[in-house]
Amino acid sequence: MKQKVLITGAAGFLGSHLSDRFLKEGYHVIGMDNLLTGSLDNISHLFPLEDFEFYHHDVSNFVHVPGDLKYILHFASPASPIDYLQMPIQTMKVGSLGTHNLLGLAKAKNSRILVASTSEVYGDPLVHPQTEEYWGNVNPIGPRGVYDEAKRFQEALTMAYHTYHGLETRIVRIFNTYGSRMRVNDGRVLPAFFSQAIRGEGLTVFGDGSQTRSFCYVDDLVEGIYRLLMSDYHMPVNIGNPDEITIKEFGEEVLKLVGNPKATLTYKDLPTDDPKQRKPDITKAKEILGWEPKFDRAEGLRLTYEYFKKVVTVD
Ligand code: UDP
Question: Of the CATH numbers 3.90.25.10, 3.40.120.10, 2.102.10.10, 3.40.50.300, which one belongs to the domain with range 179-213+243-279+295-311?
Answer without folding.
Answer: 3.90.25.10
